[in-house]
Every structure is written in C-alpha cells, then in structure tokens.
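Hi support team,

I submitted a single chain yesterday and got back a structure, but I'm not sure I'm reading the token output correctly. Could someone confirm the output below corresponds to the sequence I sent? I've pasted both exactly as they appear in my results page.

Thanks,
R.
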Amino acid sequence: MSKKSIYTKNFIICFISTFIFSFSFNYLIPVMPVYLAGLGKNKSEIGIIIGAFFASSIILRPAVGVVIKSFSGKKLMILGAGVFAIAPALYLTTTADILLTAIRVFHGMGVAAFMTSAVIMVSETVPRERLAHATGVYFTSANAALAIAPLIGTTAGRYFSFSEQMIFLAAAALAVIILLINIDEQPRKTALLQPKPFLTVLKDRNVLAPTIVFASCTFVSGAINAFLPLQTLTWGYHNSGLYFFVSAATIVAVRFVGGGLSDSCGRRAVIVPCLIITALGTAFLSLVRAPAGLVLCAFFYGAGFGLLYPTLNATVVERALPENRSTALGIFSTSVDGGQFLGPVIMGAIGQYFGFGLLFITASLAPLGGLLVYLLGLPSGKTSPVCPGGCETKP
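Hi R., thanks for writing in. Yes, this is the structure output for that exact sequence:
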C-alpha cells in the first residue's frame, strides 16, 4: 500500500510562508548586533536586547496552544505576520535600551502566534505514520531561511541603510499574509474527552522533559546568534553569515536524508548522539580563528541540531492524547524561545567579563545538561501520565 503524501495544499503554503517569515527574523542575526554595537551598546546590553525578542514568545506560545483549540490557527498565523509587518518600522523610532527591548518583545509576539500555529497545523494534517519525516521536511523551510538570510543580511548591510533594510523586512511580512489567506482551514474535531488543565499537561514529564532538552540546544543557538557575528569581527573577518549558511544547509540535508530515521529506529537512538554532536560543535567555536574552522563547527552543530527538533516534536505528539495535543505542542514550542532568550542574556554577561572563548565553552555544557535531563527524565516505555492507557510511541 502506498504511503500518503505529506505535500497537501496547506502543507505547501505553510512551508513557503514559514520560509519567508523565518527569513525575516534570521536576516537580523548579523544585522542587529552590529547595529546595536554601532549605537554604543556593550555585550551585556546587546545580549539583553537580542534575547528580548524571545521573551514574550516564551509566555505566549503555550497560550496559543490552548487558544487554538477554539480559535482559528489561520488567523493566528496572519496575526503573527502582521506583527512582523509593523515591528521593523518601530526599530527606527528610538536608540534607547528600554524602548529597543520593548520593541523586541513586541516583535517576538509574532513568532509565538505564527510559528506555534503553523507547527500545530502541520502536525494535525500530515499522516501520523510519517510524522517525524513530515515535520522534519517542514522545518527545513526555516532552516533554508537561516542558510541564506544572514548571508544576505551581511552583504546588504554594506550597500543599504538600516532603514532601507527594515522596509524590505516589512514587505516580506506582507507577502506572508497574502499567502496565508489561501489556506483552507478545516473545522476542528471536537475532542471526545475533556482536555486536562494546562498545569497538569505542563508538569507531565513526557512534555516537560523534551521541552527542557530542546531548550538546552536553543540556548546555544541564542548565544551563537548574538555573539558569533561580533567574535568574527575580532578576527578581522566580516562574514559570519558563512557559519549560518553551512549550519542551516547541513540541517536541511540531514532532515531530508534522515528525517524519518527516528520513525524506524527509535527516538532515543537519534536524540542521544544529536545532543553530544551539538555540544561538540559549540565547544569548538572557542578554538577557531578562521573561516575553515567556522565551517567545521557549523557542520557539527547542524548535524546534531538537524534531527533533534522533529524527533522531540514527534515524541511529544505521540505521547499526548488528542485533546491535550495542542497544549502539549504549545508548551514544547517554548523550548525554541526559552533557550534563545536565556542564551544571549546569560552568555552576554559571561562574555562581557571573560571573553568569547569561555562564552562558547560554557554554552556547550547546555546540551550535555539536556542529555542528562533526557536520560533521567523521559521514560523509555510506552505509557505516560498524559496517556494513561498507553501511547503508540517508539522509545
């Protein structure tokens, strides 16, 4: 019997719109730290302003997971794109730390509304037996954006003013809105059972452990995004976008080639080595001083990170009952922003006093901590407090 295709109309629209949406904020990775440094901000201030982008999303992603049960996911995605159309212009209105931080918080609201709704929509529409593969393919849209956006941002910064670049990002968000209008949203199925309270789902280790595990890796990502562009400038190298291109290209490649690996060989067999490789790729950044070293670090990091999110996402989906699934995914999605927020803030303070070398060595310990949480906190059996009768899952 042939497998059902994952490439439905809604999947394709989500894929393309996520690419453009992700391009918009990944474009700012090399642009924003350099812009802030040009305003006279120090490493600690830059870390706080950069990290604030994800602060609001940490709070709002779980709320989206709850609200989406009775609200339109399509409308929430459009709302998120609308925020992204407005926020770029706001950066032009001030140079004050507190106002720039507030604008970054507002900008991050768009991520919560759009990305959480998109992930839930994709998870609910693809065939369950191809869940890890489908989510892996879907997330390559964001990774492809990460591959090219920083490179374009680095290059464009030499020819266009910050104001002109912000106009471009606002136009990209408007293009996303036009795409999303064409989504055919199906009526939500009414759950047979009453969903469990939010705190009950949050405390379940089958949700909480994967969330902490992936947050340990996005902690690294946040630190790299905020400070690698500044570190490479100390070498006299002005194209940190090379790292982000290689890292994202590696992520895309491993997801297309091995996206279904955990569907066949088990989640644990993929998650454990991925966490170790991610830690190694981060630690090596403290040693390199040339583009070739950047490429090597980017490859290690991308290879480990690439399969981690879709595998953990699939773990959460299959361990949650249908009536709790959107809440569980909303909670899990905070792992993206929780780490991205804490990474720049904490590592910014370390970098301010101890330099970039110790900054990346310290950051590399986070995925190893995530590995410990995974091994001790996530049961390998097929039963779950959220699924008292047992969930169909590969350990």
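A quick pointer for reading it: The radius of gyration is 20 Å. Let us know if anything else looks off.

Best,
Support desk
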